[in-house]
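Page 42, continued from yesterday. The earlier attempt failed because a stray header line got pasted into the input along with the sequence. Redoing it now with the clean sequence only.
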Amino acid sequence: MIEIKLKLASETYGLKERGKMGYVLRVRMASFFSGAAIASFAGFYILHRDYKIAHESFANQMKNLHESLDSRISALEKLRQTENSKQVEASE
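This time it went through. Structure tokens are written below.
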């Protein structure tokens, strides 16, 4: 008699717990996936920001290099013009 009551109580308890476990599992899965989505968004944002900073740095380096080369080329062209003008004056 006691065994039957215990068995009946455990079956009833098991059914109630099974329903709760499904709900808890759904809540945990939803929490996990929402956390993963937020972490993914944060990661992509950080990568995008790092990419923009790196691109800006690289663009500035190339701009400075281009300006440096332009000034050197201009100096060489001026030197060439002065040498050519001196040669013309010497030949006259």
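Notes: The CA atoms of residues 69 and 75 lie 10 Å apart.
Reminder to self: strip header lines before submitting.
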